Amino acid sequence: MTTVAFIGLGHMGNPMAANLVKSGHTVLGFDLLPDNLETARANGVTIAASAAAAAAGADVVITMLPAGKHVLSVYEEIAGKAKPGALFIDSSTIDVDSARKAHDVAKAHGLLSVDAPVSGGIGGAAAGTLTFMVGGAADAFAVAEPVLKPMAGRIVHCGEPGAGQAAKICNNMILGISMIGVSEAFTLAEKLGLSHQALFDVASTSSGQCWSLTTYCPVPGPVPTSPANNSYKPGFAAALMLKDLKLSQEAARSVGAATPLGQHAEEIYAAFGAAGNEGSDFSGIINYLRDATREG
Ligand code: NAD
């Protein structure tokens, strides 16, 4: 079994590390927050004194950190301390540019690397059913795949360095736009006197069908497991949706891609968050749209 260093033991990192322990790997963990270290210790992770100390003893280093700047600073700190030829896996959601820079740092130190962001949220992390979107060379992917397996429902090799992050932000741009679309349809239906269930029964088996409707319906009732039935507790917080939409627009600007609906979705989620809803599930956007006044 492999020795894995896990750096960033937050909402996602801790349950992911726990699944690696359960599958028989030795996991050396590090985080800046003592409470998160305590949770990790209780899950069977061996706590290291620093990120560099964790990396020094590991064949594979996984990072699960908030943003690109954290990943780059940790990579700069630990790449020179890692075992020769070790594999670095970054599963954080970060901008494509920083992801490529992180690959460059790893390469300069003779390390293998993949970017491997995830979808599936905290529930998927706990259940070991995350989807991993992986960018990196074929030899790095071959080493990464069996390590990711205990945490994964699906692993997709998306292409070269940065392709995993590109897939993640494109997917979540679809999700942000589609959740607003579904929410607008329910809001209009309410005003036209059409019941939630009737719209659901029609659209879920017609051309309006999509994940935001059939799995994550933003009104209570039709899909009992959706956050709408639980006061819009996340799930996937609106602040994280806004983060991913911002990353998508940053990437779109950098390559000159026209993404007008992605841009508008970012503006709508920014206004939703600024109105005090950052901690709400992102499907709570329906309440914001319902309360909005029509212009024109
Ligand atoms: P989190 O804030 O709970 O965890 C991040 C952890 O990183 C924190 O515990 C923090 O202390 C630690 N950290 C920060 N800088 C560090 C450093 N220099 N050294 C060691 N530890 C450090 O966030 P999260 O919800 O676990 O998300 C992690 C990543 O996963 C983010 O990039 C997020 O966008 C992505 N993601 C989150 C979800 C979700 O539903 N929460 C879903 C998919 C992807």
TrEMBL record:
<keyword id="KW-0560">Oxidoreductase</keyword>
<dbReference type="InterPro" id="IPR011548">
    <property type="entry name" value="HIBADH"/>
</dbReference>
<dbReference type="InterPro" id="IPR029154">
    <property type="entry name" value="HIBADH-like_NADP-bd"/>
</dbReference>
<dbReference type="InterPro" id="IPR015815">
    <property type="entry name" value="HIBADH-related"/>
</dbReference>
<comment type="pathway">
    <text>Amino-acid degradation; L-valine degradation.</text>
</comment>
<dbReference type="InterPro" id="IPR002204">
    <property type="entry name" value="3-OH-isobutyrate_DH-rel_CS"/>
</dbReference>
<dbReference type="Pfam" id="PF03446">
    <property type="entry name" value="NAD_binding_2"/>
</dbReference>
<keyword id="KW-0520">NAD</keyword>
<dbReference type="InterPro" id="IPR036291">
    <property type="entry name" value="NAD(P)-bd_dom_sf"/>
</dbReference>
<dbReference type="GO" id="GO:0006574">
    <property type="term" value="P:L-valine catabolic process"/>
</dbReference>
<comment type="similarity">
    <text>Belongs to the HIBADH-related family.</text>
</comment>
<feature type="domain" description="3-hydroxyisobutyrate dehydrogenase-like NAD-binding">
    <location>
        <begin position="162"/>
        <end position="289"/>
    </location>
</feature>
<feature type="active site">
    <location>
        <position position="168"/>
    </location>
</feature>
<dbReference type="Pfam" id="PF14833">
    <property type="entry name" value="NAD_binding_11"/>
</dbReference>
<dbReference type="InterPro" id="IPR013328">
    <property type="entry name" value="6PGD_dom2"/>
</dbReference>
<dbReference type="InterPro" id="IPR006115">
    <property type="entry name" value="6PGDH_NADP-bd"/>
</dbReference>
<feature type="domain" description="6-phosphogluconate dehydrogenase NADP-binding">
    <location>
        <begin position="3"/>
        <end position="159"/>
    </location>
</feature>
<dbReference type="GO" id="GO:0008442">
    <property type="term" value="F:3-hydroxyisobutyrate dehydrogenase activity"/>
</dbReference>
<keyword id="KW-0101">Branched-chain amino acid catabolism</keyword>
<protein>
    <recommendedName>
        <fullName>3-hydroxyisobutyrate dehydrogenase</fullName>
        <ecNumber>1.1.1.31</ecNumber>
    </recommendedName>
</protein>
<dbReference type="InterPro" id="IPR008927">
    <property type="entry name" value="6-PGluconate_DH-like_C_sf"/>
</dbReference>
<dbReference type="GO" id="GO:0051287">
    <property type="term" value="F:NAD binding"/>
</dbReference>
<dbReference type="GO" id="GO:0050661">
    <property type="term" value="F:NADP binding"/>
</dbReference>
